[in-house]
Design a protein that fits this description.
Distance between the termini: 32 Å
Structural class: alpha+beta
Oligomer: single chain
Number of strands: 4
Strand order of the largest sheet: 1-2
Helix content: 40-55%
Number of helices: 5
Length: 158
């Protein structure tokens, strides 16, 4: 898996973390402190865990998300309201805002918002399990389980 490389010249802690999108300092502070001020260096960041599979994302986008959208629509929802940083955003209901709503609600429940692009396979599976339970609990929407033999259901010649 390719790594992301961040070049920097050590001046102070803020200059390093600003280049990396304000990542948490504590994870690599000890190693950074070994570098002398003014020295050029780089940091490589690798994602841990297995990447999500196309089948996993296909199940989310092909089954869970459309059913969530329909459940919200059937419940009379026409907008999605999301609160962040003391502001509320009222967005029209569609599949994109339904996706944002599910990630936002999961983030509030889980304690940290994470986009699916930043999730590994296990985190994405946990997110999808939560979506299924949340939809069943709050909207009486029962998402069918994934078909482990989905590929074998193709007809010959397809």
């Amino acid at each position: 898996m390719p790594a992301t490389q961040f070049d920097f010249i050590k001046c102070n802690r803020a200059s390093i973390t600003e280049k990396m999108g304000s990542m948490e300092w504590t994870g690599f502070a000890h190693e950074i402190d070994k570098i002398k001020a003014g020295d050029k260096a780089y940091i490589e960041i690798h994602r841990r865990g297995n990447p999500k599979s196309p089948e996993e994302l296909g199940y989310y986008y092909g089954v869970i998300l459309p059913m969530a959208f329909e459940a919200l629509k059937d419940n009379g929802e026409i907008t999605v309201t999301i609160s962040a940083k003391d502001k509320s955003y009222c967005l029209p209901l569609d599949k994109n805002t339904t996706d944002v709503l599910l990630k936002w609600r999961y983030g509030k429940w889980h304690g940290a918002f994470k986009d699916k692009g930043d999730m590994n396979m296990a985190e994405c599976a946990a997110f999808m399990d939560w979506c299924i339970i949340w939809l069943a609990t709050h909207y009486e929407c029962h998402v069918p389980p994934a078909d482990p033999n989905w590929d074998s259901t193709k007809k010959e010649g397809e």
